[in-house]
Structures
1.
Amino acid sequence: MAIDLHKYANPKRFLAITSAIYPWSVWLTVILLLGGLYLSLFVAPPDYQQGDTVRIMFVHVPAAWMALMIYTLMAVSSAVGLIWKHPVADLTAKAAAPIGACFTFLALVTGSLWGQPMWGTFWVWDARLTSMLILLFLYLGYMAIWESFDDPAKAAKAAAILALVGVINIPIIRFSVDWWNTLHQPASVATMDGPKIHTTILIPLLVMGLAYTAFFVMVLIIRVKAEILKRRLRVLQIAELRES
Amino acid sequence: MSRFFQLIGRDIRLAFRQGSAITLSLSFFVIVVVLFPLGVGPELAVLARIGPGVLWVAALLACLLTLDRMFQADFEDGSLDLLIIGPMPTEMLVLAKVIAHWLTSVLPLIVIAPVLGLSLNLPGDSIVALTGALLVGTPTLSLIGAVGAALTVGMRRGGVLLSLLILPLYIPVLIFGVAAVDASIAQLSAAPHLLLLGGVSLGALVVGPLAAAAGLRLSLS
């Protein structure tokens, strides 16, 4: 019992803190998302070349930001979990992975929907697209290794090792893909060096980015809570089995 | 240190006496490369264009094929437990295993690669670059692969998971490796690419054994 208390001391505090944050994150998500969508769909001017297609960017770019941010967060919490054996850190990394994979997927899909009218094709082997695709594979591998162990403590460690090796590799992959792209495709399709981003576009973009972050915090809290409760349930079930 | 070399020697002897391990990955490599001309068509210009990529991808896959055997056999007969309990640090054990894997499963591919390069109509200079790039770059494949092999050791269907975990991490090696050969085909210096490959290999030499040893301790605990 003493071990149990020690184990749950941190999750309990964590649950208390997150329960306080949760309503705020919900309201922030709703307000920022509505505001951001209004700003980006109605207020922001259409691009002089791309027309209304440019509005896809307001959904696409924050998703790509989130995809990278969530992997970094996963790596940091994996390191914390590995070094200080902090169970909540492991669960946070686990809970964040599917959300990150969804954001990566969203970035890829919206990117290719934007690419169809702009480049005339759904997919271009552009450096950014390719490295996002590789990031999606890294997410999938991370999620797969969590599923492959029966023992959650072992799975947490294995996944943490993988996430850390992955995060060391990401800059190398990014660099090599950039290199590969310039070697094989000298005429880049997506040159963004037109006019610099104007504030009428930048503000909706930032609001959408904040909305995505608030959304991520909200979903992350739900998922981590569910993971903690799942573990408690497991402990209770085992205890019940022992008694009977 | 003598234990380290004894372990390498033991693994090499095992691989040679079983025999099938070396010939299997070698014939896999050759067959995969042979499939490409059959699929793409026999035009020599096309083959020379895709040749470096085909050879590198085939080498990646052949290496992946033998990776799950790196710790699996020792895990099954229990000798891996003894090796970890023994006086040698687990990191060194991993390094010995990696060297043995590279010598038995990857080096034969590098030996045969020039012949396959000729069959894909690669010019002579680029075959030298190809061999050099393979020599410098493939240690990374074994080193990073060891991490995946250590994490999946003891799993029933570890091989499939291994490829999902490891292949994305192989991408830099593939890109720089092909770039080196392409550069020499274009009469440019392959040296920058080879240096980058060497840098990646040295980085993997640091990270690989550490992470793989952590993975092994975890899988056996």
Note: Residues 20-46+58-186+200-243 of chain A form one domain.
2.
Amino acid sequence: MNKKKLLGTPYFIWSAIFIIIPLCMVFYYGFTDKSGAFTLENIIAISSPEHAKALYLALGLSLISTLICLLLAYPLAMILCGLNVNQHSFIVLIFILPMWMNFLLRTLAWQTLLEKTGVINNILSFLHLPALTIINTPYAIILGMVYNFLPFMVLPIYNSLVKIDPNVINAARDLGANGLQVFAKITLPLTLPGIISGITMVFIPALTTFVISKLLGGSKILLIGNVVEEEFTQAGNWHLGSGLSIVLMLFIIVNMVISSIFDKDGEGSVL
Amino acid sequence: MIKNTAKKIYVTLIFIFLYAPIATLIVLSFNASRTRAKWGGLTLKWYGALFRNDEILKALFNTLFIAFTASIIATIIGTIACISIMNLKKRARTVVIGITNIPMLNADIVTGISFMLLFISMGMRFGMETILLSHITFCIPYVILSVMPRMKQLNPHTYEAALDLGAGPIYGFFKVVFPDILPGVLSGFLMAFTMSLDDFIITHFTKGAGVDTLSTKIYTEVKKGIKPEMYALSTIIFVTVLVLLLLVNKAPSENKKVKKKSF
């Protein structure tokens, strides 16, 4: 028995060095200034007008994207569940295969599609519909977020839908529940872990992205992710960058706590 | 009937949404004009130019090398860790799994900067090694997450029976346990490989000046305009993977047929 426990030692050491210590480093830098003295300035910096604006914008855009993802993904998951498709091929098709086309290129392709003289506008003008001018606006960023993170919402919801015993739904029907009641009383509560985990999987990368806003939002729209990235790669103020990341981590922790309350057994996990 | 048609239309629309950019990139790889803004006619010249472009080929090699090395090491460490996690007491197991989940749940940008700060404080030179170390770290959770359910389903008595019958622990593991968890190990490996391949954010923070993967190369090209060879390359990769997947999905059914015939 003891030998088996020892087998994990390389991994435990690995995770201490590469997971725990790096996070401690972020906290160390976040709570100190350049001379190494303790300070809260880097954290409070989030309330300065430009940083607060970037945070609010990121929060707004990522909440909207998460909601759109949920509204798009739930019906899709239900339909796919009803179709009885091969689960493996479905995961590959929606999740694995697109990833082999580079994520930056896929996001850039939306530029080509959305441009004033782009593909979508050509189709729209052919149909005599008004042109869509959302490139370099927050709307394009929302579209990019929904596009990139939709699979992360579909999969957990789909996984929790497949697990529902059809007899439970049949029993509810026998007892006189109509379609809407079955959905509200049976399907929705049973898929809640999937929904919560989907929300986590979409909201966090959307909140912290700097790539999507850079590629689709022009260079003028700054999200909190862009601010942090610039502090590290251009401005070189790691202390401020770390402080702002700690603020981001607060949102992540709140999100994790909420999801662990709803999803005790890890049922809604992606895999 | 109408309901079914509506369902099909909905699924089709979502798939168009997910695959429209991919189709766009494939079309662009055949575009004779150098900019993506206008269509200059059909050409194959970018496919030829691709194989003369050393920078892109080097970046491709780096990307594949990192993805292979990181996912293989992550698969080995992760699978071994699973054996030991299964044998931990409940509380210790919760803690370990909680820590394992951190790189998956944490934002990529935070993970990226935390690696950057770690490597700086260790005085490491940024380059291939730093990228590899960070990729292995964020790949391990995907392996553990897909091997763990398989481990839980195992019947522990078969392994004990193997030991009773005289198998050594390593022989017993490879003969009895490993074949049962193999699907989980393989899907974990595939997941890790794909994640490493598609990663940009963490590589962005841990790479050195001289080393580029495809992602970081594309990112630096965004301002100047993406080289059309890049579209050609990603089309080749995409089509290759698509064909491989089709072959893999087809293979089992053909095997069955062969078996039936031989009986």
Note: DSSP finds eleven helices and no strands in chain B.
